[in-house]
Amino acid sequence: MAKEKLGLKSSLGLSPKVEIKKSEIDVEQTEKAVKEIHSKKPEVHRLTIDLPMDLYKAMKIKILGESSVRDHIIKLVSDDLKK
């Protein structure tokens, strides 16, 4: 009623309804695609360690700009296992 009194009724009209396209999802195909995507990533194990702050700072200074702490530790472990 207030819209009609103020002359706003035509300016607040809704757009026409649009039919939503319905599609069926192939669950098996979707699962296959998900497995394929995730199978390309190597399996990892998360490891958490506590380092003394002075040791951590010295390591960060040594590898500054060369690599991340993660990459540096992986390299150290790999080199140690090759011995």
Q: Proportion of β residues?
A: under 5%
Q: Indicate the percent of residues in helices.
A: 40-55%
Helix/strand structural class: mainly alpha
Poorly predicted runs are: none
Average pLDDT level = 84
The total count of strands amounts to 0
Radius of gyration: 30 Å
Protein name: Chromosome partitioning protein ParB
Organism: Spirosoma liriopis
What does this structure look like?
With 83 residues, the protein is mainly alpha-helical. It has a domain at 45-83. Helix content is 51%, strand content 0%. It has 4 helices and no strands. The protein has helices spanning 2-6, 27-39, 53-62, 69-82. The protein is elongated. The model has no long low-confidence stretch (mean pLDDT 84).
List keywords for this structure.
4 helices, 83 residues, mainly alpha, single chain, 51% helix, elongated, Chromosome partitioning protein ParB
SSE layout and pairing:
Layout: H1 2-6, H2 27-39, H3 53-62, H4 69-82
Brief write-up:
The chain is mainly α and 83 residues long. Helix content is 51%, strand content 0%.
